[in-house]
């Protein structure tokens, strides 16, 4: 499974010149933790990303008020991109390398396809682990449901242990 199948295709965007309050309201209304910021002169071009964590760390923790600046002042402009053909392992590697919780997923032509978060990866991996767990359980259930033992002492006659090991 490649990342183009896992990423969120609907990316919530806001102009980099929007107010901090507007961005925070959008996050709350749409229940998202990140917004892609677009160029005010070209709304199709993503120029940054801002997360709920950015707002807490760079705005509230520094005792700044939301009216002071636009949302672009609190964004990350170094966008981490991973090709849509990449694997989960490659996405995790990029997140680790750059210390981020979200990466942008790109098409072969470089255009933005979607956004992939740690939450998306955890949901996918938990489904995979659940499937493995079910396979293991089914194997155990099959073994315990056998009606005839693999070895019948009655057929083999008397047997004695040559050496007893604890």
Q: What does this protein look like?
A:
This protein has a single domain, classed as CBS-domain (Roll), CATH 3.10.580.10. It has helices at residues 20-30, 52-60, 88-98, 118-144, 153-156; strands at 13-15, 34-39, 42-51, 81-83, 102-106, 112-117. It is built from five helices and six strands. A hairpin with a 2-residue loop joins strand 2 (34-39) and strand 3. 37% of the residues lie in helices and 20% in strands. The strands form two sheets. A three-stranded mixed beta sheet has the order 1-2-3. A three-stranded mixed beta sheet has the order 4-5-6. It has 166 residues and is of the alpha/beta class. The protein starts with 12 loop residues before the first strand and ends in a 10-residue tail after the last helix.
Query: Approximately what portion of the residues adopt beta-strand conformation?
Result: 15-25%
What's the alpha carbon Rg, rounded to whole Å? Answer: 27 Å
Which strand order does the major sheet show? 1-2-3
Topology pattern, helix = H, strand = E = EHEEHEHEEHH
Describe the main β-sheet briefly: 3 strands, mixed
**Count of discrete domains:** 1
How far apart, in Å, are the first and last alpha carbons? 48 Å
Work out the oligomeric state of the chains in this entry.
Answer: single chain
Quick check: average pLDDT? Answer: 84
* Shape estimate: elongated
The CATH class name reads Alpha Beta
Low-confidence sequence ranges: none
């Amino acid at each position: 499974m490649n990342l183009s199948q896992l990423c969120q295709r609907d990316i919530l965007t806001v102009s980099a010149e929007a107010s901090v309050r507007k961005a925070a309201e959008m996050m709350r209304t749409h229940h998202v933790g990140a917004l892609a910021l677009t160029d005010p002169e070209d709304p199709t071009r993503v120029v940054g990303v801002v997360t709920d964590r950015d707002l807490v760390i760079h705005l509230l923790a520094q005792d700044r008020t939301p009216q002071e600046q636009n949302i672009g002042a609190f964004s990350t402009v170094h966008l981490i991109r991973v090709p849509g053909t990449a694997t989960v392992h490659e996405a995790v590697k990029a997140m680790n390398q750059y210390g981020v919780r979200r990466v942008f997923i790109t098409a072969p032509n470089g255009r933005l396809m979607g956004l992939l978060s740690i939450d998306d990866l955890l949901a996918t991996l938990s489904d995979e682990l659940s499937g493995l767990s079910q396979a293991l359980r089914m194997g155990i259930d099959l073994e315990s449901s056998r009606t005839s033992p693999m070895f019948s002492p009655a057929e083999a006659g008397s047997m004695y242990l040559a050496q007893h090991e604890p």
